[in-house]
Every structure is written in structure tokens, then in C-alpha cells.
Specification:
Blueprint lengths: L8 H6 L5 H11 L3 H23 L7 H12 L4 E4 L5 E4 L5 H13 L1 H34 L8 H31 L19 E2 L5 E5 L5 H11 L11 H5 L15 E10 L2 E13 L10 E8 L10 H12 L7 E7 L3 E9 L3 H9 L9 H14 L6 E8 L10 H12 L4 E6 L7 H10 L2 E5 L3 H10 L1 H5 L1 E12 L4 E7 L19 E4 L3 E10 L28 E10 L7 E8 L10 H16 L10 H9 L9 H12 L25 H4 L2
Parallel strand pairs: 7-8, 7-10, 10-11, 11-12
Antiparallel strand pairs: 1-2, 3-14, 4-13, 5-6, 6-16, 8-9, 13-15, 13-17, 14-16, 17-18
């Protein structure tokens, strides 16, 4: 017999209110039903949020009239509206949940922010119902016109309706995450966040050095950190704005690879929108996709920070819910272990089949924060666990989830990085998931991911968790190429100088390109990677300080290849995930004189993101880029926009346009309240 999601026993199970014999009987009845297990997780999340809210706020005495109303409702077993993640609002009740019902009602009555959150959520639920009805009417209309699909029966119709409703649910889920932030994420009194300084790449004269060498980067943490600041009406620290991570946050619809190569390489050249006299070169890589059904098994070790600094709602509670999304993607091919660290480290869950979701979820649910942070000891134990259960031919990965605030044991960044680099030689890859604010150590986590053959993402809400651990789970977990390096050589006959936009923390010495001992970035299944170069054409007047001509030598003679119309040659080196010897790919680009308006949709969108990053950094190279221009460029290049991430970027730019500029001498990490923007700026009030 299939259990309904409306079965009131599920609530009692989630709240651990059933007698032992009834609990076991219900668990046996549920079995491995993933939908029901997810429903229980949702209910536990609701209870956790309510408990956190009550623990953090000092309750005020309710007026007697309101107290009596609540007590009467409980006595009569009247339904209480509970905030739900999956369906947002839904009426649920069970006779044994009186205590939680009173807590929920008291919270909504007593605390204005929770009352406002409830009202916003009710409005969102109404909007969701209206949108679903509208989409269903549209679907039926299209069905009648036979423009979507020829559905022979409800068996074909229902899955498509579910897809439409899922898209509507995602939009509502994003709004619900924002409401949760407003209710629970109070900025800390002291901000000790740390970001590595970035010295922007300058223009380099081709006559002096015609080559540029760097490691690819598929990290996305910078984008969600930047978004978190802007959503709180603060300008992000300059060190938090890594332009390559902003660009590569988005998927791009480039050509997929053919043959044995793990990725395809494409080059495009147009004018630069912020300095039209210059040329903009896009180098794009598209990793091959791997079908989830045919993927190899995974050996995952969750390395979870349970120190005292992780107790706030946007840290350990969000971390547990996020990893729960990943667990739901696993099956019998996979094994999960859980290692925790605080003052000491320990194995919480030995290797467990991905099909046993109940056991894994229970282990996550039972984690609590407390103690200091001995990250080094946890890293040692996690890698030992991963190597002990190594899957030959599969994916072996440690997933480090933390705020990066290591304060006992191995604490300095260089020693932690050396430790991770040593462990990376074991063949175990690393994923870093960052959480929280106030004491967040981005510079440490970025370095760990960079040296650990890994990727790095920052999770600020469940929408971002879903993007990283559901939408892009194959790219997060499965590496298709490691130590990927790029080296470009510019034709001095056509190019006077060039500048790589971003990748400042990924620059390599030219000699490192052919040295297989040097680590570089890794590409996951389906990942898109974009690099942009701004180029000053030969003979153009350049407004920048120059260098004196060389005294003892002059630039070499142009070769026969230099007489061609090739603008640049792009070389790539990569290794197979388990390989030690690199392979070489080589492509060339020709400047056909295209204007920016003739560029592809992906090219134009990537350029708009780059311009936004330069504005946020107050870059001396931003030319005539403005927020208005960024909005215009991005809106004109939304494309298919799976997941709605590009549209969300446009709204983020509009919010950023209203933030004040940094004043001279202002500390980069200072937290400020928003102020009025320039009324003459059309983005000030209208957007």
C-alpha cells in the first residue's frame, strides 16, 4: 500500500512522537520510498526552523485573549498553517502535535518578522496557485493546437504538467529563501570575513611578452557571495569579486565535444562593448555530459564542520538540508561516509549505500554544533576514509562543508593548503561548500579547493544548494579532465597588447604549461568554462603608461605564421582523471571584424557579466561600462535561460545599481546601510 503525503502519521514521525512499536511499523511500511522520505525531511526542516526561531528570540507574554484562542484551537484539533518548503503553505495536523502547534502559533503572533514572513508566504502561495492555473490553461491550449506534443493519454500529459509546475515551484522557492533570509540572517556585530587581495591583470605589450598562461577555473563561490552582499544592500569586498567565477556561474550553450576529447574548444572575436575600439576574444570550453543512468559509482565522504561557529541557521541547519538534496540523487551504486570535526574529529557514519537514504538522513539530522574548529584533523580522517573505500574507475571525493574558520590544530592557511595538496595525490578529489557570514574565510576555502583537485561553491540558500547539488550534480561530482591549462600566443602583426579578464589567482608561469608536475584546474561533466581577453589592435593609440624600449635587443622577426590572418593560437593541456601525462589541443582564432551586436547570445551575456564585475571592482579597465549598459546587454542575451539564473542576474544588477559608491579610503569589508542613489540615474527609482 502506498502511503499518502497527507498521512498525519508522517508529522508525528518527523517530530519523533510515535511510540517505538508504531514508529518501526511505519518505517517498515515506508521502506525506501524516496518521495515519502523527502516529505519527512521537509517536516523536520519546518520543526527545526521553528525551534531555531524560538531559541534565538526571547518570548513575550501573549495577551490572554490570543492565548485562549490558540489553546481552544489546539483543544479542538483545528488545523494550523505550517510553512512548507515543497508546497510552501499547506494545512497539516495530528492530535499529538499540540506543543508544536502552540509554538508555531505563538511564533507567528509574537514576532513581527515571522508574522510578516507568514503573510509574504501566503501571498506567494496565492501567486503560485494562480501561476499554476495559468500554466495549465496555457498547456491545454497548446495541447489542443498540437504545438507541444501529441499526448495520447494522461500518462503522457501528467509528466509534462509536473515539469511546468516544477518550474513554477522553483520561482516560489527562490522567493521563500529570500523571506527566510530576511527573518533569520541578522548581520553579525563584528565582521571578520577574509578575502584574498586581487591585483587586476594589466595590459601586456605583445612585443614584450606575446603569451598568456593560466589554469582554468570552474568555481562559482564568488557569484553567490557577491549576491549575498548585494541582497543585504552592501557592496561586496573587492577581493570577493572574482570576475571569472561570475562569468562561469552560468551554463552556456556551446557545441558539445566530438570524438574522444573530454571537452570542445571554441573561439570568437568581436568589439568590446565597454571600449568599442578594442577587440574582445572569448575562449570557451564545453565539457562532455555523462548520463546519470550510466555513470560510475561514487565514494563520497562528507567532511562537516560542527564547531560552535556553525550553529546559526544559515550554517549547519542549511548545510544539513543542502546535503540532503545530494543524498536524494544517489542510489545503490554510491557509498556515503560522514566525518565531523570540531575540537576533535570522528566518524559519524561508516560507508553506507546511497540507497539507504533513511540512515544517511538520520545521521545528518543528528548533527549539532559545538566546540572549536580543528579542520586539519578532520581532513586527515576524511581522506583516510576515502582512500580506504576507494572505488577503482569511479568517483572518489571528499565534500568539505564549513565556514572556513579553523581555529585549533592546523590553523594557518599555508599549512592547510599544503596538507590538502598532499592528500590530492591520493586520487581523491575535493569539493568545498562554504556556508555562513560574519566569520567566513573565503581565501582559505578558495585555496583548499584550488590545491585539492576540486571545485568551490558558496551556499547561501536552498535555491543555490539545488543549483549546485541537483541541477549541476554531475559537474560537481564527476571530473572528466584534470590539470587543465591554457596558453595563448598573440600575433604581433595584429595585436599590440592584451589583458586577461579575471583569473588573477590562476596565473601560471609560461614554463608551467608543459610541466605535468604543475597542478591546474579540473573540469566536471557538462561544465562550461569561459575566458575573455580584451585586445588592443596593432597601431592603435593606447592610453596607458608604456615601458622604455629594450637596450640590448629588439623584438624578434615575425615568422611566416605571423604573416597570416590568425589573431591568436590557443593551446590546452589536460590529463585524464586518473592520468599522469597531459594531452595537447590547439585551435586558432581569426578576427573577422564582427561588431558586438553580431556576437552570439552566450558571448554577449558573458561580456555583460564581465562588465558588471569590473564595475563592482571599480576597475580602471571598465571603460564606459555602466549598470544601465549591463542591464541592457544582459536582458538582450537571456537565451533559453534554464533555471532562470540569467533573469535573476538582471534583477541583481538592478539592485546593485542602487548601492552607494565606495568613498576614498573606505575599508573594503565595511558594512554599510543603503543610501539614496543618484535620481538622474534611470536605474535609481524605476528599476
Amino acid at each position: 500500500m502506498t502511503i499518502s503525503k497527507d498521512d498525519p502519521r508522517l508529522i508525528a514521525l518527523a517530530l519523533d512522537e510515535l511510540p517505538p512499536e508504531e514508529k518501526q511499523a511505519l518505517l517498515d511500511e515506508i521502506g525506501d520510498d524516496t518521495d515519502i522520505l523527502q516529505e519527512i525531511e521537509d517536516l523536520r526542516n519546518v520543526a527545526g526552523l521553528l525551534r531555531e526561531g524560538l531559541a534565538e528570540k526571547s518570548a513575550k507574554e501573549l495577551p490572554e485573549a490570543k492565548k485562549k484562542t490558540i489553546e481552544d484551537a489546539v483543544a479542538q484539533d483545528k488545523p494550523i498553517a505550517m510553512l512548507r518548503r515543497r508546497k510552501v503553505l499547506r494545512t497539516v495536523w495530528y492530535p499529538t502535535t499540540a506543543a508544536l502547534a502552540m509554538a508555531a502559533a505563538a511564533t507567528l503572533f509574537v514576532f513581527p518578522q515571522y508574522k510578516q514572513s507568514r503573510e509574504r508566504t501566503e501571498a506567494m502561495e496565492a501567486e503560485r496557485r494562480e501561476k499554476e492555473a495559468e500554466l495549465e490553461r496555457l498547456w491545454n491550449s497548446k495541447l489542443q493546437q498540437k504545438t507541444i506534443v501529441k499526448a495520447k493519454d494522461d500518462g503522457e500529459r501528467e509528466p509534462l504538467l509536473d515539469q511546468i509546475k516544477e518550474r513554477a515551484r522553483r520561482r516560489i522557492d527562490s522567493k521563500a529563501s529570500s523571506a527566510l533570509k530576511a527573518a533569520s540572517d541578522v548581520p553579525p556585530a563584528f565582521n571578520t570575513e577574509s578575502y584574498a587581495p586581487i591585483d587586476e591583470n594589466p595590459f601586456i605589450d605583445v612585443a614584450t611578452d606575446p603569451r598568456s598562461t593560466f589554469s582554468i577555473d570552474v568555481d562559482t563561490a564568488s557569484y553567490s557571495i557577491m549576491r549575498r552582499y548585494i541582497e543585504r544592500s552592501q557592496r561586496p569586498p573587492k577581493g570577493a569579486v572574482r570576475i571569472e567565477e561570475l562569468i562561469n556561474y552560468f551554463p552556456y550553450d556551446d557545441a558539445v565535444p566530438v570524438g574522444d576529447a573530454p571537452f570542445a574548444v571554441r573561439t570568437d572575436v568581436t568589439s568590446a562593448p565597454w571600449t568599442p575600439a578594442n577587440r574582445l576574444v572569448r575562449i570557451s570550453l564545453k565539457g562532455k555530459s555523462i548520463d546519470r543512468a550510466s555513470r560510475a559509482g561514487t565514494n563520497l565522504v562528507f567532511l562537516i564542520d560542527v564547531s560552535g561557529s556553525m550553529e546559526s541557521a544559515n550554517k549547519l541547519p542549511l548545510l544539513k538540508r543542502s546535503l540532503g538534496l545530494l543524498v536524494n540523487q544517489l542510489d545503490a551504486r554510491d557509498r556515503v561516509s560522514i566525518v565531523v570535526y570540531a575540537g576533535a574529529s570522528g566518524l559519524v557514519l561508516p560507508p553506507t549505500s546511497g540507497a539507504d537514504k533513511r540512515t544517511i538522513m538520520n545521521a545528518l539530522d543528528n548533527l549539532n554544533a559545538g566546540g572549536s574548529t580543528n579542520g586539519g584533523e578532520g581532513i586527515e580522517l576524511a581522506y583516510a576514509q576515502a582512500t580506504r573505500n576507494f572505488i577503482e574507475g569511479g568517483t572518489n571525493r571528499v565534500i568539505l562543508a564549513t565556514d572556513g574558520d579553523f581555529n585549533v590544530g592546523v590553523t594557518d592557511r599555508s599549512s592547510l593548503v599544503d596538507l590538502i595538496a598532499q592528500k590530492a595525490k591520493s586520487g581523491v578529489f575535493l569539493s568545498v561548500l562554504g556556508f555562513g557570514m560574519g566569520n567566513y574565510k573565503d581565501d582559505t576555502l578558495e585555496s583548499l579547493a584550488q590545491r585539492g583537485n576540486g571545485n568551490y561553491a558558496y551556499v547561501d540558500d536552498m535555491s543555490e544548494a539545488r543549483k549546485v547539488l541537483v541541477e549541476q550534480v554531475m559537474g560537481t561530482l564527476v571530473t572528466i579532465a584534470k590539470d587543465v591549462k591554457i596558453q595563448v600566443e598573440w600575433n604581433p602583426r595584429l595585436v599590440q597588447s592584451f589583458r586577461l579578464i579575471g583569473y588573477e589567482n590562476r596565473m601560471l608561469a609560461h614554463r608551467d604549461f608543459n610541466d605535468d608536475r604543475k597542478d591546474a584546474g579540473d573540469i566536471g561533466a557538462g561544465h562550461s568554462v569561459t575566458a575573455l581577453y580584451e585586445v588592443v589592435i596593432a597601431g592603435a593609440k593606447q592610453d596607458k603608461p608604456g615601458t622604455d624600449p629594450l637596450k640590448y635587443q629588439s623584438p624578434g622577426q615575425v615568422t611566416d605564421a605571423g604573416q597570416s590572418n590568425e589573431l591568436v593560437t590557443v593551446k590546452l593541456r589536460y590529463k585524464e582523471p586518473n592520468g599522469a601525462t597531459s594531452r595537447l589541443l590547439e585551435v586558432t582564432a581569426i578576427d573577422k571584424g564582427k561588431t558586438f551586436a553580431e556576437a552570439s547570445t552566450d558571448f554577449r551575456f558573458a561580456a555583460s557579466v564581465a562588465a558588471f564585475g569590473m564595475i563592482l571592482r571599480s576597475s580602471p579597465h571598465k571603460g564606459n561600462a555602466t549598470m544601465s549598459q549591463v542591464v541592457s546587454l544582459a536582458e538582450g542575451s537571456l537565451g533559453e535561460d534554464p533555471g532562470g539564473h540569467r533573469r535573476a542576474f538582471v534583477e541583481l544588477v538592478r539592485a546593485a545599481a542602487k548601492l552607494p559608491e565606495r568613498s576614498n579610503g573606505e575599508r573594503d569589508t565595511q558594512v554599510r546601510s543603503p543610501s539614496r542613489c543618484d535620481p538622474a540615474d534611470p536605474l535609481c527609482t524605476d528599476l
